[in-house]
Amino acid sequence: MKICVIGQGYIGIPTAVLFAKNNCQVIGVDINETIVSNLNKGNITIEEPKIKEILKTCLENGTYMVKTHPEESNVYIITVPTPFKENSFECDLKHVISACESIIPYIKKEDIIIIESTIAPLSTETVIKPLFEKEGYVIGEDLYLAHCPERVLPGNILEELVHNSRIIGGITPQCTRKATEVYKIFVEGEIIETEAKIAELSKCMENTYRDVNIALANELVKIGAKLDINVLEVIEIANKHPRVNILSPGPGVGGHCIAIDPYFVYSLAQEEAKIIKMARDTNKSMPDFVVKNVKNILNDYKENKHIISIFGLAYKGNSDDDRESPSYDIIRGLEKDFDLKIYDPHIKFTNLSFEEAIQDSSLLLILTNHDEFKELDFNKLKENMKQPIIFDTKNIIDKNDILEEITLFNFGNLPK
Q1: 257: annotated active-site residue
Q2: What is the CATH code of the structural domain delimited by 285-410?
Q3: Closest CA to 16 of 66, 53, 60
Q4: Is 24 a known active-site residue?
Q5: What is the number of alpha carbons within 13 Å of residue 279 lying toward its C-beta?
Q6: Which of 4, 58, 175, 257 is catalytic?
Q7: What share of the chain is helix, strand, coil (3-state, %, to 5)?
């Protein structure tokens, strides 16, 4: 089977190499010539366990290659980004539409077209299907169209692509069956067959569910700050109830899924989706909340201009994925009033060392739960920082481990 995967990013690359590893002939497609060149040389463009070794093997045996344009294939899988429109909150399908249009010169009867990109409910039926119908194809007879969203976590993508359950939502039952045959090549988890619109809404609501629950924890942080109550202890105690699981609060929500997908649902039913929008607003407000508390913490320390050490750009620990990361909003909120030094060992363009990042700093601000940040060298903090203060927005520093000379703030003891 020959498979063309359009988009070679966080989902496209792992998807492509898993098919290639399982003896499919795979063409990866990306419009970014640098990405294409790097991948063909075996230089992986994302940080993900085991993927570099599999990529190298597939390149050597010729089952995977990358180009800037599609080729005639049996299966076309679309894995391009789907941002939202700032004004209307609608799903912006421009990249998906462009990808679909790019394969039209190559498709033929009996081909299978799969949209993996997360899209708003009804998009496959009302926007994507007509693109192929106007070329004279009958969906479900000439071409088989389905929406099959990924459900993976950065840092464990290969494992989860194989073992997680997979939703297969076809435009017709025959479309569903054809797409199922494709994923059975490497998926070992349960394959759930359904309609395209149900698959679309299911994926959006999975991420919306998480967003709403994170918002509850973040709202609790604000309540605790106002009432001078340690909410981290509140959460720990409340979660001892057998049917309660309050999530961990944080500096905001990042990633290309949780921070975006709820808007797709809200845009289609704004009167009905009020909780969804309020949760999004709460999570979007957290960077400003962090900035406000940084200023409160440093208010008692008189300096002409404080240096703040930003620890973490990625939105998720032990990952280089910084898409929609709240760290960038926090940086924008701080850079007018403070000098910033940014350190993230997983992000290539941050070239400061740990020692350089803390030198003469008045505050170390932890925004990502990388393992490297969980066991800091506190002696170096004491020796090199001007004011040895840590503001841990991810609650990863054990207060029992730090030195007496270091002041630790988290969401449990914010200053008034």
Answers
A1: yes
A2: 3.40.50.720
A3: 66
A4: no
A5: 26
A6: 257
A7: 40, 15, 45
Q: What homologous superfamily does CATH list for 2-189? A: NAD(P)-binding Rossmann-like Domain (3.40.50.720)
Longest Cα pair distance anywhere in the chain, in angstroms? 74
> Where in the chain are the domains?
2-189, 204-280, 285-410
Q: 10 vs 57, 155, 284, CA distance in Å? A: 19, 10, 23
Instruction: Check residue 301 and report its DSSP letter.
Output: S
The pairing of beta strand 363-366 with beta strand 389-392: parallel
Task: Work out the angle at residue 153's Cα, subtended by the Cα atoms of residues 278 and 25, and round it to the nearest 5 degrees.
Answer: 130
The residue annotated as part of the active site, out of 197, 203, 316, 394, is 203
Tell me the CATH class for 204-280.
Answer: mainly alpha
Helix (H, G, I), strand (E, B) or coil at 352: coil
Q: Name the residue among 23, 7, 29, 140 with its Cα closest to residue 82.
A: 7
The model's pLDDT over 79-101, given as tens digits with 9 standing for 90+, comes to 999 999 989 999 999 999 999 99
258: its two tokens:
């949780």
Residue found under tokens 């040895």: 388
Domains 2-189 and 204-280 share a fold: no
User: What is the rounded distance in angstroms from the CA atom of residue 100 to the CA atom of residue 139?
Assistant: 14
Give the strands of the sheet with 339-343, arranged side by side.
339-343, 307-311, 363-366, 389-392, 407-410
Are 166 and 148 in contact by the 8 Å Cβ rule? The answer is: yes
Query: What are the pLDDT digits (tens) for 213-270?
Result: 999 999 999 999 999 999 999 999 999 999 999 999 999 999 989 999 999 999 999 9
